[in-house]
């Protein structure tokens, strides 16, 4: 499921408002969590999330969003999964014009997207267990779903 908006890229607060409204319309909580590649792992078709998520994630997501806004290639706010009942969101910004074309950002510069098969993430709160999951990430069923997420060091 996705929704396209006007041709201009909204400010981060306006984008969040639109995202929350869209999620509520899909019967999904509007209590957003922000994730980066370092926060999730993919193992045997399961999404794992390191908890607690860093408090700075929302600020970093806003910074990433604003960086993408300045580039004017378009932005996608995407939901990766649910952690409990809360949607784990991320900001995807195309690397170049080709990426933007592939992501359909030429028709609309701002898209909110939620997978039709929204998966539930498993939380991992033990640091050693988390390191093990990151070490053995992938394996059978590797689809690279989490590879699309931005890293913190943008």
Secondary-structure topology with pairs:
Elements: E1 2-4, H1 12-25, E2 33-34, E3 40-43, E4 46-50, H2 57-71, E5 75-83, E6 86-92, H3 97-102, E7 110-113, E8 122-124, H4 127-135
Parallel strand pairs: 2-6, 4-8, 5-7
Antiparallel strand pairs: 1-7, 3-4, 5-6
Q: Characterize the overall form.
A: globular
Number of helices: 4
Helix content bin: 25-40%
Estimated structural class: alpha/beta
Strand content: 15-25%
The rounded Rg comes to: 15 Å
CA(first)-CA(last) distance: 27 Å
- Tell me about the largest β-sheet: 5 strands, mixed
- Mean pLDDT reading: 89
Low-confidence stretches: none
Extended strand count: 8
Order of helices and strands: EHEEEHEEHEEH
Spatial sequence of strands, sheet with the most strands: 1-7-5-6-2
Query: How many structural domains?
Result: 1
Q: Describe it for me?
A:
It is a single chain. The chain has 154 residues and is of the alpha/beta class. The protein contains four helices and eight strands, in the order E-H-E-E-E-H-E-E-H-E-E-H. The protein has helices at 12-25, 57-71, 97-102, 127-135, and strands at residues 2-4, 33-34, 40-43, 46-50, 75-83, 86-92, 110-113, 122-124. The longest helix has 15 residues, at 57-71. The protein is globular, with a radius of gyration of 15 Å.
Summarize the entry for a quick read.
With 154 residues, the protein is α/β, with parallel strands linked by helices. The chain has helices spanning 12-25, 57-71, 97-102, 127-135, and strands spanning 2-4, 33-34, 40-43, 46-50, 75-83, 86-92, 110-113, 122-124.
